[in-house]
């Protein structure tokens, strides 16, 4: 679990990412829980009370709320919960997340529909995923540039050229991280999502990846069913924990 969580963190780079033993303290102006949580996947090198104090100090320094991301049922989940931290039930994107994996050869065969893939995000891509131009923080996370993961931005159009859907793909070592899949309401259930995923998978294979990894909120049953149909399986789950007063 730890390696996969680290790969996902590398694919979704925070503006600030500080090591605390085997923990990663991350901040990105509050944009997404993944980029604004301490990733607890190993020994922080400190007593757990001191490690959580370090999380609080780091988040105060960066103006975000304290939050720990850790695999459900693991030793660090139990340790953090044992010090009174609770599920971040107010997290709108979902406090519990399923990490899915799939072979890229299978995902790449899902559809032959044409999808535009580019190494930079266009204005149309930003409009579709954010509703407008990105902030500096959003651009850093989604389009990190030199030093970040190799990234592609997929865009599907209708015959008239209007955008139908988007996806973001990032290669980290032998995995392709897929995120920001979105299809306009009128085009859903028409194969657009499968086409975007397949195009991203083929691109990942071309750039040395062998497996796909996705992070999907447990409550998002529609997305989980979609990826299940494409052959993805659940590897593990993680959750976000916060101090009781932060809920």
TrEMBL record:
N-acetyltransferase domain sequence ranges: 124-247
Coiled coil: none
One of the Pfam families matching this protein, by short name: Rv0428c_C
Phylogenetic placement of the source organism: Bacteria, Bacillati, Actinomycetota, Actinomycetes, Pseudonocardiales
InterPro entries named in the record: Acyl_CoA_acyltransferase, GNAT_dom, Rv0428c-like_C
Protein name per UniProt: GNAT family N-acetyltransferase
Cross-referenced SUPFAM superfamilies: Acyl-CoA N-acyltransferases (Nat)
């Amino acid at each position: 679990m730890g390696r996969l969580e680290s790969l996902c963190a590398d694919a979704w780079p925070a503006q600030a990412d500080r090591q605390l033993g085997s923990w990663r303290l991350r901040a990105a102006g509050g944009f997404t829980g993944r980029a604004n949580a301490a990733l607890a996947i190993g020994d922080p090198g400190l007593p757990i009370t001191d490690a959580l104090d370090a999380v609080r100090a780091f988040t105060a320094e960066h103006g975000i709320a304290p939050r720990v991301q850790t695999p459900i049922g693991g030793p660090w989940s139990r340790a953090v919960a044992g010090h009174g931290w609770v599920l971040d039930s107010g997290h709108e994107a979902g406090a519990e997340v399923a990490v899915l994996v799939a072979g890229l050869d299978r995902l790449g065969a899902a559809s032959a529909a044409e999808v535009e893939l580019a190494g930079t995000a266009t204005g149309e891509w930003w409009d579709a995923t954010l509703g407008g131009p990105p902030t500096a923080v959003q651009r850093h996370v989604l389009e990190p540039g030199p030093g970040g993961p190799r990234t592609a931005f997929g865009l599907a159009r209708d015959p008239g050229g209007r955008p139908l859907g988007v996806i973001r793909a990032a290669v980290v070592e032998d995995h392709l991280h897929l995120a920001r899949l979105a299809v306009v309401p009128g085009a859903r259930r028409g194969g657009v999502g499968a086409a975007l995923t397949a195009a991203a998978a083929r691109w990942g294979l071309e750039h040395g990846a062998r497996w796909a990894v996705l992070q999907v909120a447990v409550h998002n049953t529609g997305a989980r069913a979609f990826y299940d149909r494409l052959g993805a399986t659940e590897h593990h789950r993680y959750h976000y924990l916060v101090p009781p007063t932060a809920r």
